[in-house]
Amino acid sequence: MPRPRSYIPYGKKEVSLTPAIVLLNVLIAGVLFLMLFFIYRYITSEEEAPPSRTPPPENNANTEADNIPSEDPEPIITTTPPPSMTRATTTPPETGSNDAFVFIPGDYDKEFFANNLFIGDSIMTGIHLYGHIPAGNVFAKVGLNLVSVLTTEIDDETVLSKAVRMKPARIFIMLGSNEIGYSTGADMIPRMLTFIDTLKNKVPDSEVIVLTISPVTAAHEQSRPENMEDINNYNNLLKEASSANNFFLIDVGEILKDSTGYFAQEYAESDGLHFKSGAYKAILSYIQFTIENS
Predict the structure, then answer these.
(1) Cα 275 from chain centre
(2) Residue 257 CA to chain centroid, in angstroms?
(3) CB 3.0 to 4.6 Å from 81: which of 85, 127, 136, 268, for a disulfide?
């Protein structure tokens, strides 16, 4: 009896797969898999590679607006402290000493000045308008000078009554810019000494610290009565008076100057007299640094 064959539909041929065909199909599938794998690796490596384009440089233009504190990084200044940075009874480091001050403008602690009183004219008003010192810790007014400071009232309070009420740990005085254009340093020093003595009598536990007045720009000097010769002369007389009368003087004016001896543009407002926010940050950090290292 003949051997039965499997049923094959009409029109179809019986196909048998040889081992060679099977192996060929496996090789083709393997080659396709490898090709797809390398294509995938190439694409993903391109996506993960860092861009070769160099980023544009930062814009260092001064964009400081009125009453907006400047956040530009400040330069590092290394300087040997002059006698005026310490008490008159303290001997400053000798020339060539390794005990140099390393001062970084702008780095100051607001808590350090929490119970301090700042006295001054329109220049000093900016110290609270820019938010560096609370308004309650400032006695400052446009036009204030060494003649009017004892009689002027701000918010129904004189400088003496404010000092007695506050009993501040320190009192900082920056006065003279409103007189320098029409009065001599020799006339101004006695008025400063009288003011200091009056404060010490009223608040004997408060330390009175005098700040030198700030420089002006060369452009300001050309059009206004304030000039660097008179300013430097007054500040030098203040230094001599601090030695003779044993009061603390900090020469903040020096750190605001450029290489020519005038008010540095990075700190000066457009009028060449008043301060940008960065100038207040610089003098506050300088004051704290000087006191902590004196």
Answers:
(1) 13
(2) 16
(3) 85
Written as one letter, the residue type at 225 is P
Pick from 215, 211, 221: which is nearest to 258 by CA?
A: 215
pLDDT digits over 152-210, tens only? 999 999 999 999 999 999 999 999 999 998 899 999 999 999 999 999 999 999 999 99
| One-letter-per-residue 3-state SS of the chain | CCCCCCCCCCCCCCCCCCHHHHHHHHHHHHHHHHHHHHHHHHHHHHHHCCCCCCCCCCCCCCCCCCCCCCCCCCCCEEECCCHHHCCCCCCCCCCCCCCCEEECCCCCCHHHHCCEEEEECHHHHHHHHCCCCCHHHEEECCCCCCCCCCCCECCCCEHHHHHHHHCCCEEEEECCCCCCCCCCHHHHHHHHHHHHHHHHHHCCCCEEEEECCCCCCHHHHHHCCCCHHHHHHHHHHHHHHHHHHCCEEECHHHHHECCCCCECCCCECCCCCCECHHHHHHHHHHHHHHHHCC
pTM of the complete model: 0.68
Q: Which is nearest to 166 in space by CA: 158, 174, 177, 176?
A: 158
CA-based R_g, the chain, Å: 38
What is the architecture, at CATH level 2, of domain 77-292?
A: 3-Layer(aba) Sandwich (3.40)
Cα 84 to chain centroid distance, Å, stands at: 23
